[in-house]
What we know:
Layout: E1 7-12, H1 35-47, E2 52-55, H2 67-70, H3 75-83, E3 90-96, H4 102-115, E4 120-125, H5 144-162, E5 190-191, E6 196-197, E7 212-215, H6 220-229, E8 232-233, H7 240-256, E9 265-266, E10 269-270, E11 273-274, H8 278-290, H9 294-303, H10 331-343, H11 348-355, E12 363-364, H12 366-378, E13 384-389, H13 392-408, H14 421-425, H15 433-438, H16 441-446
Parallel strand pairs: 1-2, 1-13, 2-3, 3-4, 4-7, 7-8, 8-9, 10-13, 11-12
Antiparallel strand pairs: 5-6
Helix pairs in contact: 3-4, 4-5, 5-6, 6-7, 9-11, 12-13
Amino acid sequence: xxERQLHLGAILEGVGADHNSWLDPDxxxxxxxxxxxxxxxxRLAEAAKFDLVFIVDSPYITPDTAPxxxxxxxxxxxxxxxxxxTSRIGLVGTLTTSxxxxxxxxxxxxxxxxxxxxxxxxxxxxxxxxxxxRNYGREEHFDHKVRYGRAxxxxxxxxxxxxxxxxxxxxxxxxxxxxxxxxxxxxxxxxGAHFAVAGPLALSRSRQGQPVIFxxxxxxxxxxxxxxxAEGTFAAAQDFESGRTYYAxxxxxxxxxxxxxxxxxxxxxxxxxxxxxDEEAQAIAAEAQAxxxxxxxxxxIGRAFNYHDFSTYDLDAPFPDLSGVTLNSYKGQAERIIRVxxxxxxxxRQAAYRFGQWKSDFVGSPETIAAEIERxxxxxxxxxxxLRVTRPRDFALFRERVxxxxxxxxxxxxxxxGDTLRSHLGLPVPENRHSRARQSPQQxxxx
Length: 447
């Protein structure tokens, strides 16, 4: 196995984040709320030696929202159930820093990390959809820059709380009647721009020290946050060149902050079309393209602009002037749509077909798909991929036909080397900050 190893995640999307997957007769119609479906997919991913399963989330919907998002289980509850039904695979869930409190998040993800014996990961998001504000007692969404400043402080507080106990704080010495070494319990006493949290957290550290931090923002502020806090990023790159650009930019930002860029794993989304031959796969992709509904594509592109209604515009006129529309939503994606539409002189119809669907370089036979994955990995466009899992046939083809090729090429594991998410990703266990403070300068230098 090469020193640098490919990583694979499975995004469990139930009935699908597009508008057509739920029509698959082999997919349970209630998959998004069926714990049996999630456990089955997680076990299949674990048998294929995937690094992790990932549960996406957002706290706002409309009647036009994609099927999976309309009716789905809450991530932490769901992942705790999966934890009890698996033994190795990582468990990553999304929680927003805009509408939660650090103490709650520290306790919930810390608990998941204990329940799973060191397999938890937190996807840090700031919530793109402005409508979420009114679900949490606010009239207006936080401004984009405020959201990211709040997120940075939020993560610092959570990580501080996770270090409330040094690893040997509980001697549990019955002969001495000593359960806790009080000198090794630490208050946080944080007072910042957004939060005041005393601590300590009523929970010790897990086998992997702390849950792994993921992040997915693509705006400049999002990339800065990822460079500062992330140990993995869920990139939105849809082609090789944009993947390489994102990869280089994020790692450069991390290096500029004094971080080791190799300790941030970049995992773009992966939606392959797989068939026995390239020609058959291309025909399947063409058929899927022809079946797309323009109306639904307009909804999807509108989501980047907080579900802006594009149905009132002329489809064949130039992409509309959105200077009066707020970009305080999925800002990076919205800005990219506006920029590319202007550069390429796209009509609204053309923009809807380009940005309202997930386009993929990964169309072909299992050999072709594996070769393209290798090209992205070797070419530093990705450290691995997050496979969207919904249609049973597609997931089976990837596990049974593509993964063995990647393994034969020495790119992907044939067995787990450890049993924590950090061990799968090749990430170190973070040292407890209070234990480190006890060390002498000579001890630290010797490391």
